[in-house]
Amino acid sequence: MKKGMDIRLYKYEIIKGKEETAEEWLNFLNANRKAGEALLKDEHAYLEAYFKTMEGGNLYVYMFFACEDVNFSNDKAINQGSGLDEQHFAYMRECIDLSRGDIMDCLLYLDNMEDAVR
Description:
By secondary structure, the protein is an alpha+beta fold. 42% of the residues lie in helices and 28% in strands. It contains five helices and four strands. The protein has helices spanning 19-31, 33-42, 70-79, 83-95, 113-116, and strands at residues 6-13, 45-55, 58-67, 102-105. It has a four-stranded antiparallel sheet with strand order 2-3-1-4, covered by helices on one side. Strand 2 and strand 3 form a beta hairpin. Helix 1 (19-31) runs antiparallel to helix 4.
């Protein structure tokens, strides 16, 4: 991985009763994986990974994001995004209370990506 990257871990609680919508959202992203990977290039992003877990009886989605500049990537996706981005954000607005999410900055990362791409 490039040194000096912006790396974030986002944690979002799924709104009670919207768990099925969250599953649709994650299935949508998975079904559109190739198109999503192409968008990452335009957003100067390297990796976007999603995880889900149950915590205290609530469903949570975590997103790991690594890019050159998170502000550039977010601006590009939100303001100049594709239909895929628009649908992605529509799902998020429907099943996540964005005001209650956590955004964690990366304090340290180790990488050995040169071996991974060989």
